[in-house]
Amino acid sequence: MYFKEFDIRWSDLDANRHLANSAYINFMSHTRMGFLIENGFTQKELAKNNIGPVVFYEHMYYFKEAFPGKPVKVSLEVAGLSEDGMFFEFLHNFYDANGKNFASCEMMGAWIDLKTRQLIGLPTQFNDAIRNVPRAKTFKTLTKEDTRRFGKKPENLV
Questions:
Q1: E strands along the chain, which residues?
Q2: Single pTM value for the model
Q3: pLDDT band for position 36 (50/70/90)?
């Protein structure tokens, strides 16, 4: 399991003086980028291959409030990958200074070709790298159908 530790800053609080939902998203994003960089997905390598990650959804579950004063840890586990590496699912958990889990998030995303703006499978070097990281106990091989499991579709105004 991969971890990043954060101090809750004044700017991370909402009107109720606890960790704001936008701060949860920022902490997870920072954790993901640290994980990817440490596994060879650096900005330089992504730019060289003209790819970038996109988020499909982040489903948050809040169990208890978090307040400033003590650091928090955010974990990342690989919960799913498609065979070609195009789709990925990460599981994040938030822990207080005593190791108590106060929030959780299921996140799914994919890789996009930055020129064509189309989803693509990972180049071999990246696909091999992501397959060699530890996996969550609930790991699943993802298919395109998994990305549609909630049945949400756009509803235009016109």
A1: 2-6, 51-62, 72-82, 87-95, 101-113, 135-142
A2: 0.92
A3: very high
